[in-house]
Amino acid sequence: MRSKVLPSPKGNITDAKSFTYRARFLLVGTIGTHTPVAFAKEDPIKAGERISNEVMSAPNPETAINGLSQAERETFELYNTPSDVETIETETLQAATMANKYCRIDGVTFGQKAILGNTLYTWWQRVEICGNPGVQIDDVRILEAGGETKTPTWSYDGNANTPTAYATTGGQWTSRSSESFSQTRLNRRTECVTATIVPSGEYRATSTC
User: Please, which residues bridge with residue 165 across strands?
Assistant: First the structure.
């Protein structure tokens, strides 16, 4: 019914405390779509990762950023600035049966892409749906909601709000969760999963808050 199941990324959650932010990064919201040419022999995404690691490992990241060449600075910004959101995976971990009653686990994972095309971070929601297929949903529980990042300049800071699931009109249920990410202490982003579960048991998720 949906794409193949991947293991839950729960174990990859990055503790925000492991990051030290000593610089305010100038990340321009609208940057030209051209690719930096200074690293023609190096993959642009690998170059962005390398530069970001060098900046974050420097004794003074702010000084390191100011010392970047124009091409390095552009690559750094393109690598770290958010662009589009993609659906990485929707999954059914346990298939529904046609028994009178059933419970199954469903979920979704979203990813925040950078302008350069790399994934900055991901967030997800897993729910348990119980009911009578095609008739009604009796209960929905959020089993897990979380996020992770492997980008040196970003951190995952935990749930922005308490995940919740509740019944709405027409026999439908809604599950909501939100995750907090930060690129600097003053640049926090909240990412969400809002899902509608219809009486047939179908789980329909979006990244809107």
Answer: 175
Question: Nearest to residue 187, comparing CAs of 120, 92, 118?
Answer: 120
Instruction: Quote the number of domains for the chain.
Output: 1
CA dihedral 74, 77, 82, 88 (to 10 degrees): 80
Q: CA-CA distance, 76 to 116, in Å (whole number)?
A: 9
- Spell out the residues 6+ positions from residue 40 whose beta carbon is closer than 8 angstroms to its own: none
- Neighbour order of strands in the sheet with 187-197: 155-167, 173-184, 187-197, 203-206
Q: Report mean pLDDT in 10-residue bins for the chain, 209 residues.
A: 37 35 35 44 91 91 90 94 89 54 89 96 96 86 96 94 94 96 79 93 91
Tokens 């980008």 correspond to what residue? 151
Token readout for 115 is 């302008």
CA 204, 199, 4, 109: dihedral to nearest 10 degrees? 30
**Which residue is associated with the tokens 């932010």?**
21
Whole-prediction pTM = 0.74
